[in-house]
Amino acid sequence: MFFRKNKKYQMNMDTANTILQNVFAAESQAPNTIPFDKLVLREKANTRFYDRFLVMLSVVVLFVFLSPLAFIPITGNPITGFSSGTLELVDDYVEKDCLYLQVDGAPVLYKDAYLETTDGTRYSPISFDEKTGTLCFPYIENLESNIYIPTMDGGTLHLLLTPQ
């Protein structure tokens, strides 16, 4: 690796033990009762856990940084319930208690369109013209209604009709 030490210093165990005992004697401390070679083995055993932990932590950090590459970008509109092709309301008017809506854009499932009032009553279109994209629903005055016009690709145009 890049950060490893190139130079390794080694000392004879007997010399190291003698130096340790001299340090204790200079500080007026009790001499060391544990042999120096056992101290070195303990230190190596204690650092093994940390070395393995650092390697494991490095792998986890690597996965965290590489995880965005695992996601496939979604093409189109990821929100369900909306058409990937655009469906627009071109014109609307009321004539003889009928609400006429003209839509343009994505292919429409005219038979599956419906008007739903706030009390839960559903009304299918009275008539529709596929050539002009016009749907005719019953017009109910003074009652808020939701109009749902599904498209062939699975989307739905949702219109809200509020009384004036």
Tell me the number of strands.
8
Count of DSSP-assigned helices:
2
What's the story with the biggest beta sheet?
4 strands, antiparallel
- Low-pLDDT runs of 5+ residues are 77-83
> Which strands sit side by side, in order, in the main sheet?
1-2-6-5
Order of helices and strands: HHEEEEEEEE
Radius of gyration: 40 Å
Gap between N and C termini:
75 Å
Mean pLDDT value: 80
The share of residues in extended strands comes to 25-35%
What is the overall shape?
rod-shaped
The percent range for helix content is 25-40%
Structural class: alpha+beta
Q: What does this molecule look like?
A:
This protein is α+β, with helices and mostly antiparallel strands and 164 residues long. It has two helices and eight strands; from the N terminus they run ααββββββββ. Residues 77-83 have low confidence and may be disordered.
